[in-house]
Amino acid sequence: MRATGIVVEYNPFHNGHAYHIAQAKKQANTDICIAVMSGSFLQRGEPAVVDKWTRAKMALNAGVDIVIELPYVYSTAQARDFASGSISLLAAIGCESFVFGSENGDIAPFLHTYDLISTHRDEYEAVIKKSMTDGMSYPQALQQAYQAVLAYRTGDTIDLAQPNNILGYHYVEAAQQLTPTIQPMTIPRTAANYHDESFSHASIASATAIRKALFDTKELMPIQSFVPETTYALLNEWQQQNPFVQWELFYPLLQYSILHKTPQQLTQYVDVSEGIEYAFLKAAASEQTFAGFMTKVKSKRYTWTRLQRMLTHIYTGYTKDIQAQFDKPSYIRLLGMTAAGQRYLGLQKKHIPLTLISRVAASNDPMLSFDLHAANLYEIGTNLGRTTPRFQTDYATPPIRVL
């Protein structure tokens, strides 16, 4: 059995994701689709709208055969590290290829872009460093560096101002540097753009627009035409017992996490630097909503996403000392599988170089231990909106089987 991989968050799963799965299997001509999916906290520095088990079930009901978890270390990191962890895990579980969506839709310009930047790596990195020292955000610095090396191009390249192209580039970069035997492929995004906040197509919408509708209306009906029936049913089931999750729900806990620290203590957390800790303390002391807090600390230097990642790390206690322990993925956490996925794992298991974990208990692996810790904190935050609190369900939940 042959497998292709996809990197996902499914926040939540929608019709565009179903299209991605179908096209990935078709383009890669494989039997199995394996999704490496972010867990409780996501790459944009926010808690997932529903928990990872619900999102994994959405995926398995819609064509994914195996769902594995992207550890917190990578799922909340900037694009390069997010991609590195994702592609490493897909390669370890035996994927021959991976397929990502992009604004471009053609893999050749991604490969040309990688070759261009690799050839002029020293200049590229130097421009990034200088641009950030001059006060640019990281995405702006990347774009500045890219423009500097474009003068040397000899073939088609991609537009690195587009969010999916940025992630796609880093997927290709990770594959070329870490595991060149895995083949990168891309398909064009369809109908909705990554950050679209409104519905402009009959059946395809961005996850951003879907979340906005859920948070604004607290109703499922407005999103019904944009998600598969199985996703709609799972969202309805979730809503019967839980709120849809966003930072606003967690804000009292985040506010406490900030205010009981000194400025020096706040700088211990990953990505917190350059005096932003003082802005955090001032905003947490005066603002009673997450939206108000973010409005107070936002500046040209810091993107919304970068700020949210810092706040995620403060909330979860992810310090620079903890981060320094991690070099590469040390295990594969299985969240769910179909009958075909189960057969694949049976055939592949002896060849997987990492420990395959289906049930967890207390762990000596620091990366897994932090995943469990982050999942518990996600659950505690979600309990603020539950009538019946839950605790430590990560220990008790077995992999989902859709057979």
Automatic annotation (TrEMBL):
Species annotation: Caryophanon tenue
Localization (cell): Cytoplasm
Single GO MF descriptor: ligase activity, forming carbon-nitrogen bonds
Chief site of localization: cytoplasm
Gene3D superfamilies given in the database record: HUPs
UniProt keyword annotation of Nucleotide-binding present: yes
Family that this chain belongs to: Belongs to the TmcAL family.
Name under which the protein is recorded: tRNA(Met) cytidine acetate ligase
